[in-house]
Amino acid sequence: MSKSDNLLALVQARAGKEPVKLGLILGSGLGDIADRVEGEAFDYTDLPGFPVSAVSGHSAKLVIGNLWGQRVAVFGGRAHYYERGASDAMRLPLELLKALGADQVILTNAAGSFRSDIPPGDLMLISDHINFSGLNPLIGEATDARFVNMTNAYDPEIRAALAKAAAADSIELKSGVYSWYSGPSFETPAEINALKILGTDAVGMSTVPEVILSRFLGLRTAAISAITNMAAGLGNEHISHQHTKDMAPIGAAKLARILQGYITSI
Ligand code: HPA
């Protein structure tokens, strides 16, 4: 039995065997949605092999149950590359999600914006990404399945449905390109300038490895950034993790409404 088979048995023993429709991975300061799920909660520390994320602003638990009429698995808290230098830290959680029967995963994150028309407090629907870190969670994967096609990695149909849910609730949701910077230090203004020239609309320290892994596993994928600040050198705020945690809940409220609209529509 593989690690995810063992985990599946452990989780289903408590949460039941009914298949899960989708997964949600929640970013910094965006964990509240996990509390809305009616179901079973598992601390990551009780799930053998799960990454134990020690990043403040992330509640490290998995909740499986009913959210707005769908059976979901919500991962409150993710492990980041910058914690231990493992870009595949989220592989086991995503393998478990797949084993639970999900066909899609929606990722959320906090990010710095490059665009004055997507200011702090707004959300950005990710249309594509730039892997500025050069790292890849599939390095070492031995099979040909590692050569994952990343065209339309951010599923056009799910994106359209999320945009529709936002519009139906009069929430502005612009789209843009997200660049992954390893962190944990924030970017320099020179790096932000370089990323801007490359075509970045928002920058953050997560999501890209999970999207690569999700596509590898055959999960349909979409992602939304909650903009917490203008990227380094583009605004006047003092960029800090505390600022990220303070600002993310503003976007989180709108994010929850969009996700509610989307989840009730599928
Ligand atoms: N850079 C990287 N990660 C972030 C930022 C940022 O400006 N804001 C929130 N997460």
Describe the protein's architecture and organization.
This protein is α/β, with parallel strands linked by helices and 266 residues long. It has one domain: Rossmann fold. The protein is 32% helix and 24% strand. It has 7 helices and 9 strands. The protein has helices at residues 3-15, 81-84, 91-99, 156-168, 189-198, 208-217, 241-265, and strands at residues 22-26, 38-43, 61-67, 70-76, 104-113, 123-130, 173-180, 202-204, 220-230. It has a 5-stranded mixed beta barrel, surrounded by 4 helices. Helix 4 links the parallel strand 6 and strand 7 (173-180). Helix 3 (91-99) packs parallel to helix 6 (208-217). It is globular. The two termini are 33 Å apart. The chain binds hypoxanthine.
Quick one: CATH superfamily? Nucleoside phosphorylase domain
Cofactors, ions and other ligands in the entry: hypoxanthine
Order of helical and strand elements: HEEEEHHEEHEHEHEH
Number of helices: 7
Give the proportion of residues in helices.
25-40%
Total beta strands: 9
Structural features:
266 residues; alpha/beta; Rossmann fold; five-stranded mixed beta barrel; 9 strands; binds hypoxanthine
List the helices and strands and how they pair.
Blueprint: H1 3-15, E1 22-26, E2 38-43, E3 61-67, E4 70-76, H2 81-84, H3 91-99, E5 104-113, E6 123-130, H4 156-168, E7 173-180, H5 189-198, E8 202-204, H6 208-217, E9 220-230, H7 241-265
Parallel strand pairs: 1-4, 1-5, 5-9, 6-7, 7-8
Antiparallel strand pairs: 2-3, 3-4, 5-8, 6-9
The protein binds hypoxanthine.
Hypoxanthine binds at residues 110-112, 181, 186-187, 203-205, 228-229, 231, 239, 244.
